[in-house]
């Protein structure tokens, strides 16, 4: 074998080794990325979180950290609009898991905004609004929990199941579901939300509630215009004029 041939073979061997090592590193990084859970709540205060609301509600203290939980309490006070507690992390594809505790005497509605954004627009009736999909949490009608409503003004309807407006009946929801209240043997609910591409799945207490394919909606003209649907922020909601008592804890996220 001449020197030129040996050189070529050596280069091939070295190149193969580098490609193999690179592939292994790439797989390892991908695995680490998929396994790396990050907490969004430190259990002590609302560091990393901020309130999104209208000026009339900016001084109201419905959201706070207490006893290792994020607490929302507007019981006895309906004089407010929708108020969101938004986390600072902007993210695209992810899996979010959290625990929430609901109360039978709390008639209000909550939810988890995903890939959402507080948008100021002069054409909006109130000048601003939280745009994007919301995974519903509704203690008075627990079968709604895990279904998806889209707050984007151009949409403003249930998207999973697909409805024409905000109106929905129990027959439109899941046939089976498990929902716990504070006085249940297991007082906490486990909610998992997975957003990957145009697909959103929600799982409540181990049961799949929603498997939504949002191609053509989450990436439509309106959602792209407001930069929501495919990327955005996570926020917890207090619905307008609702009396709500709800606790959240163990909030973790991992990027996909």
Give a description of the structure.
The chain is α+β, with helices and mostly antiparallel strands and 256 residues long. The strands form two sheets. Strands 1, 3, 4, 6, 12, 13, 14 and 16 form an eight-stranded antiparallel beta sheet that branches. Strands 2, 5, 7, 8, 9, 10, 11 and 15 form an eight-stranded antiparallel beta sheet that branches. It has two domains: 1-36; 40-255, Jelly Rolls (Sandwich), CATH 2.60.120.560. The longest helix has 33 residues, at 3-35. Strand 12 (189-196) and strand 13 (199-204) form a beta hairpin. It contains two helices and 16 strands. Mean pLDDT is 90; it is low at 16-31. It is globular and about 45 Å long. Helix content is 15%, strand content 39%.
| CATH class category name of the largest domain | Mainly Beta
CATH architecture of the largest domain: Sandwich
Integer-rounded radius of gyration: 22 Å
CATH superfamily of the largest domain: Exo-inulinase, domain 1
Counting H and I runs of at least 4 residues, what is the number of helices?
Answer: 2
| Major β-sheet annotation | 8 strands, antiparallel
Q: Per DSSP, what share of the residues sits in E-state strands of 2 or more residues?
A: 35-45%
**Residue ranges: pLDDT <50 for 5 or more in a row?**
16-31
How would you describe the shape? Answer: globular
Succession of helices and strands: HEEEEEEEEEEEEEEHEE
Q: What's the total number of strands?
A: 16
Distance between the termini: 49 Å
User: At the third CATH level, what is the topology name of the largest domain?
Assistant: Jelly Rolls
Tell me the structural class.
alpha+beta
